[in-house]
Amino acid sequence: MTLSLNLTIIKHVNETGDMMKWSKNELFLNPDVELSFEQELVSEPSWFENLTHILDVTDIFVSGFIRYHAHSDMIQYHMQLTGNYVLPCAITLEKINLPFDLIEEDAMTVEEAIQEINSFYSDSTGVDLFPIAKQVILMEAPKKVIKKGLKEYPKGKGWEVVKEDMQAKDKQPDPRLAKFKDFKPE
């Protein structure tokens, strides 16, 4: 007869105020127990230093669980990330707020996690899911957004932004390439 025990432990904030970190002892002394977490995150300007397609990320909330499976020596996590991207419009550069709701999950053996570069697990410090959450938020941001209902494109002295279909109508073919018009590949 096998007895199955399904426990959930809600993690309390530790001394540093971080709920997305667990020591090896916390993890391994609670085998097959869901260690749940909920945390609000605040983005920092350093997140976007080399990114031009994200201006900010606001109202970030992360919830989920992590579990150590003793029988398979596997660490599994699941997290849901919600918040708002602040992105520049690709045409006008106006700020656009775009909500997101992302799911991230993974499972790997302790040995695989130790060997993996940039893993969520370190043999010396335990588990830290914050870098994973940050990476998912930044990787899932759209590269290009356009403001809904944009009717008037920006223009200035001697320049204007035109729609691609209008540009194609005005564009005359290069006369040097005219002889390729009759070319038929065999």
Topology:
Blueprint (H helix, E strand, L loop, with lengths): L7 E3 L10 E2 L1 H5 L5 E8 L14 E14 L4 E15 L6 E15 H6 L5 E2 L3 E3 L1 H11 L14 E2 L2 E2 L3 H7 L16
Parallel strand pairs: 1-3
Antiparallel strand pairs: 2-8, 3-4, 4-5, 5-6, 7-8, 9-10
Short description:
With about 190 residues, this protein is an alpha+beta fold.
Summary tags:
single chain; alpha+beta; five-stranded mixed β-sheet; three-stranded antiparallel β-sheet; 4 helices; elongated; disordered N terminus
Structural class, from secondary structure content? alpha+beta
Average pLDDT metric: 83
> What sequence of helices (H) and strands (E) makes up the elements?
EEHEEEEHEEHEEH
Q: How many β-strand stretches?
A: 10
- Radius of gyration, rounded? 25 Å
In terms of DSSP E residues, the strand content is: 35-45%
Strand order of the largest sheet: 1-3-4-5-6
The total number of structural domains is 1
If helices are DSSP runs of H or I spanning 4 or more residues, what is the number of helices? 4
Q: Determine the fraction of residues in helical runs and give it as a percent range.
A: 10-25%
